[in-house]
Model the fold of this input.
Amino acid sequence: MKILVAVKRVIDYNVQIRVKEDGTGVVTDNVKMSTNPPDDNAIEEAVKIKEAGKATEVVAITVGEEKAQETVRKALAVGADRGIHVKADGILEPLAVSKILQKVVEKEKPDLVFMGKQAIDDDCNQTGQMLSALLNWPQATFASKIDVKDNKLEVTREIDEGLETIEINVPAIVTCDLRLNEPRYASLPNIMKAKKKPIEEIAASDLGVDTSPRVEQIKVEEPPKRKAGIKVANVAELVQKLKNEAKVI
Amino acid sequence: MAVLLIAEHNNKELRPFTLNAATAASQIDNDVHALLIGNNSAEAAKHLSELPVIKKVLSVEAPHYENFTAENFAPVVVKLAENYSHIICSANTFGKNLMPRIAAHLDTSQVSDIIKVISSDTYVRPIYAGNAFATVKSNDAKKCVTIRPTSFDPCESSGGSAPIEKIDAAEEFSNTKFIKREEIKSDRPELGTARIVVSGGRGMQSGDNFKLITEIADKLGAAIGASRAAVDAGYISNDHQVGQTGKVVVPDLYIAVGISGAIQHLAGMKESKVIVAINKDGEAPIFSVADYGLEADLFEALPQFMEELNKLNTIQK
Done:
């Protein structure tokens, strides 16, 4: 079984983002960037499946500008076998990314495609589902547990009401929840080894996919600031305020 | 052209957020049709027809729609799409799972999780877990939009009588099989819709200590939340997690106990109407969003809080 894992480079989740003064987006210059957190879970799961002898190859792929390749290199350092970097500049919407992934899937013919359930920058939560629609493959979104059984997967999904378990036939798409596993750290020797693993570079334009945005970003602004309120001296005052001032209890 | 709302339900009743999504749909266009895909779901379809904002209900029933599988639902919507300008659904796990599958088939770039309708093609949506708001305009001919339910009020739930039209089922998708659903049962209100939420963080120090929170939540008729730190430390199960990677809540009252206020937690609760923070660290970031802050040791403050509540003659539920 061959697993393709898609990773995205985003602003690190610990960074307090800042909106640009001209309202065109958020500040990304000199800001720490990392792999989208649930994409780390996707890589981890693929590597674990390979270590359990149930997969033969793990291929990491990213779509984006030059520096996006860092995320593929990181995936190689935690156990992916080789990488693919589809180069594309500018804003890439999930629809464009899923069309690019579709082209690569047609060429690479993986049995499974894993990725995070959502990117923490645009918060779209679309790419996996769109890719499975384009390929007409089954989709297991928000996965918190994956059991590989021959040519099927049993997947537990995190849904609003609790948990749902489904069985999907391979080939299939799985989008990963943070609860799926605990991603490992790359060891120094593995980081060194990863530098020698191959990364194939492909230009998005060579895949014949039109990546121009369909959704126009008119402006980006800070959310309305919440004013800090008051400090109360003790519990009695707090309860009295909640009862008589805020009238919420 | 009319707007098509995809209803979320459990085959008997509408799920509450369908009413919020209906409000958003009606802000985009007056002519809202609603689609109910289910199995033995006539009762839910009837309820849908009673929402005054709905002009027409389309209902399709088949055994393979029993469990809301996106691979089965998407073809039904795609087939109807030519008659509609917009496809609308809630941005909860049902809609998040389903809508992109529809959008890709329609070659539409979906707009996810909107919190405001500016016009029929322009919306506001949070990005970076609510740390920025983007105003976006969809240039696709057909628009696929999911809405954040807590940002729209529920519509009236009775008084309407829209006609119900039966439509044909689409073929079953055979590569996905539903096995089971384990719903978390609780006497408490659901975290996502509760009027009051009491949350504990790492400051609780242990799972046992959460009983201090449980007591107060019981007294107030509140749901129980937690920060990611408390969940990661194993104090409480992950379905209680409030934040960027957990649930986004907008209660009338949010009480944060022993929670420092990491960015990821604030993203999930800072839209609450009234926020209370109880923390012994006066510099904790949670105080910057709290309407009422109490700098105190929670192990002293919580029992006192319970005592004070017991003194009150009445408590709103």
